[in-house]
Amino acid sequence: MATKQTRALARTMMAPAVVVLFIWMIVPLVMTLWFSFQNYNLINPMMTGFAGWANYTYVIGDPSFTQALVNTLILVGGVLLITIVGGTFLALLLDQPIWGQGILRIIVISPFFVMPPVAALIWKNGFMHPGYGMLGHLWKFFGLQPVDWFNQYPLFSVIVIVAWQWLPFATLILLTALQSLSEEQREAAEMDGANAVNRFRYIILPHMARAITIVILIQTIFLLGIFAEIRVTTGGGPGYASTNIAFLVFRTGILSNDIGAGSAGGVVAVIIANVVAIFLMRAVGKNLDA
Amino acid sequence: MTAKTLFAGALLLALTGTASAQTLTIATVNNGDMIRMQGLSDQFTEETGIELNWVVLEENTLRQNVTTDIATNGGQYDIMTIGTYEAPIWAKQGWLKPLDTLSADANYDVDDILPAIRGGLSLDGKLYAAPFYGESSFIMYRTDLMEKAGLTMPDAPTWEFIGEAARAMTDRANDINGICLRGKAGWGENMAFLTAMSNSFGARWFDENWQPQFNTPQWKETLDTYLSLMADAGPAGASSNGFNENLTLFQQGKCGMWIDATVAASFVTNPNDSTVADKVGFAQAPDTGLGKRGNWLWAWSLAIPASSQNAEAAEQFIGWATSKDYLATVAEAEGWANVPPGTRTSLYENPEYQAAAPFAAMTLASIDSADPTAPTVDPVPYTGVQFVAIPEFAGIGTNVGQLFSAALAGQMSADDALAQAQEATTRDMTRAGYIK
């Protein structure tokens, strides 16, 4: 049992780590806020001084800002749709008693271990490139013109890659939920004459609702900031077709060396992320109370 | 003597040992010529005792890395590999040390450096970066396909001829594209090509009052010519092709013509890498008869950031890596065709080089014909052939590059791309204070 002394000791020993973590989080945030109100261009030392709201009006007035915002939402929505529908389907399959189940499960979750830039590179050159990619060869085999995925369907291509990466996560969480469903309940429904569709709709799906909520919440937070996959494959283009808010911030801050405007974009992104998070907590987070 | 004093003595010795051996940290790009230099640099260390610590990066990463380092006075590097875009801008900011000792060294012979290249790396007559290799751009073409099409490539063709030849050479059934051109977005990718091309159509980025010019008929003609050429005779997925992608396509025999950097000549004529090595001809970049050709000028160069604590040793290394002796060293090890090209007059006068490199004369003619101080038909307030030498250009150029890449991918029309380019550039130039 913890005595007063051990508790005090624990606190003292943990304090440095807590302080470091806090500074780690707060310092970049405060600096971003500070820079967002400064004229600061990396390679133009003439730009200095207080900028007022100029950086914000510049970023929000960017012709590609609205598109980036829409792209961000499509990206998040698209990936969520694929991973939840696909994840549920895979979880149902993996829940069946089949031979080699353990190995199969490991194979299914393995994409999660691949780093995003690596995954994106493999998809870009190995699969989707019209000249070298496997899909290109497949199309040619059937006498068709290879599809230039990243130029014809840039946002869709990015969604596919990101969904491939997040599908294992969704599957894993949903499978765990599925396994916690009591066998008796299923059998009872079966004996009452409920068919597979009805069993899924009235028993399995409601049971998985909480897990789905968790998947939506966690994935949304990560998906709002998708960057590596875009950087490696489309570079935000063609045009602004696959530019999301995170990539727009990168383009403004790093590619254009405009740290002031980039920081303003970063602050805007944080605000948007929070708005989305609050909205989600209200809309789907209710499931968590039960 | 106790063990303690022995240990202290050894430690002291070790410390003074490391302090006396000077180490230079060099940031460079992962291009073939630089990798070779890295391999040969042991010689420099043997001669001088100066150790070298290499940071080798891919082009875009290198740019971001060194720009951030020098702008924030990070002081990570003693030598940076930079281009003709950065050199004059950074020199003006006082971020680079002038190479005065080297310029005064008769043995180094600064006057031997090609005037166009030297001019691009100087500010107010002072050299701020030494060229490691220099390049212009020209046409590389398949002599066999040209013959099959019943055409003869002139030394200095027009865009009209290039269009005709490209369409005649195209044989989609056999995977042969008449022409391969850059389409990947980026100021150093598609915009390097398109800006140089636009010069030959009489277009320019800005007029003398820094007003963007994308709403002019000259830009419209440039973009229309480029798009229709690529639609009729370009490879699939061209909007993701940069230098390296096109190089691979050409080496695999999938391009009838390719207009790009002159340094590519040694790669496409090297039988180890290229399936068409013995069938490549060279010609100057096309024009439209307005007095400017569509070729650029670039030099990957070595410079010393003002923050370097080892400036003297750094200048010594730059002297070694960009000297005539270094060229001779590479020639001895790898043959004359593989020496870094485009920097020294003496190289182009060397009969051994002329014999080994069939592209030498055309390279020199292309470099000499590019003038960064008067790149366009009409006067402009900026220098730079395939870029505009202002700090904001990296961002603006990449932005416009995205729009033109989208037009190539068929995501938007040429008119929309030009209108949006005009709007975005006007916005950025107003923000930067060029337009009141």
Automatic annotation (TrEMBL), chain A:
<protein>
    <submittedName>
        <fullName>Sugar ABC transporter permease</fullName>
    </submittedName>
</protein>
<feature type="transmembrane region" description="Helical">
    <location>
        <begin position="259"/>
        <end position="281"/>
    </location>
</feature>
<keyword id="KW-0813">Transport</keyword>
<comment type="similarity">
    <text>Belongs to the binding-protein-dependent transport system permease family.</text>
</comment>
<feature type="transmembrane region" description="Helical">
    <location>
        <begin position="106"/>
        <end position="123"/>
    </location>
</feature>
<keyword id="KW-1133">Transmembrane helix</keyword>
<feature type="transmembrane region" description="Helical">
    <location>
        <begin position="208"/>
        <end position="228"/>
    </location>
</feature>
<feature type="transmembrane region" description="Helical">
    <location>
        <begin position="73"/>
        <end position="94"/>
    </location>
</feature>
<dbReference type="InterPro" id="IPR035906">
    <property type="entry name" value="MetI-like_sf"/>
</dbReference>
<dbReference type="GO" id="GO:0055085">
    <property type="term" value="P:transmembrane transport"/>
</dbReference>
<dbReference type="Pfam" id="PF00528">
    <property type="entry name" value="BPD_transp_1"/>
</dbReference>
<keyword id="KW-0812">Transmembrane</keyword>
<feature type="transmembrane region" description="Helical">
    <location>
        <begin position="155"/>
        <end position="178"/>
    </location>
</feature>
<feature type="transmembrane region" description="Helical">
    <location>
        <begin position="12"/>
        <end position="37"/>
    </location>
</feature>
<feature type="domain" description="ABC transmembrane type-1">
    <location>
        <begin position="69"/>
        <end position="280"/>
    </location>
</feature>
<dbReference type="InterPro" id="IPR000515">
    <property type="entry name" value="MetI-like"/>
</dbReference>
<keyword id="KW-0472">Membrane</keyword>
<keyword id="KW-1003">Cell membrane</keyword>
<dbReference type="GO" id="GO:0005886">
    <property type="term" value="C:plasma membrane"/>
</dbReference>
From TrEMBL, chain B:
<comment type="similarity">
    <text>Belongs to the bacterial solute-binding protein 1 family.</text>
</comment>
<keyword id="KW-0574">Periplasm</keyword>
<protein>
    <submittedName>
        <fullName>Sugar ABC transporter substrate-binding protein</fullName>
    </submittedName>
</protein>
<keyword id="KW-0732">Signal</keyword>
<feature type="signal peptide">
    <location>
        <begin position="1"/>
        <end position="21"/>
    </location>
</feature>
<dbReference type="InterPro" id="IPR050490">
    <property type="entry name" value="Bact_solute-bd_prot1"/>
</dbReference>
<dbReference type="Pfam" id="PF01547">
    <property type="entry name" value="SBP_bac_1"/>
</dbReference>
<dbReference type="InterPro" id="IPR006059">
    <property type="entry name" value="SBP"/>
</dbReference>
